[in-house]
Amino acid sequence: MSGGNSGSGRVRGTVRSLDRALGGEEPPTRFQQWVARHPVAAGFGTAVAVGLVLSLFEAGLSALVPALVAGLIYGSTAVAERRRQARLQRRGLWDGV
Predict the structure, then answer these.
(1) What is the pTM of this model?
(2) Which among 63, 31, 35 has a CA at the least distance from the CA of 50?
(3) Rounded CA Rg of the chain
């Protein structure tokens, strides 16, 4: 039982190195900045767009559920982007402008 938290530390280090490799420390684009500042609007807009497209092919509530799921996923991604930008500011890698 020694080592206690070494497994989660290894996972956290692996996730951070993967994040860096995928550009997680790059400054955000203007679109990413907007999405991070307006996560509810981004999620709602995505849900509406997906709902409109699906309503062309499906009728009733069968188009509503996937649209809401897409909006929730995109809104959650926007919140994660907001946290990433806050981390970049905290670490001094981006000035927030």
Answers:
(1) 0.79
(2) 63
(3) 18
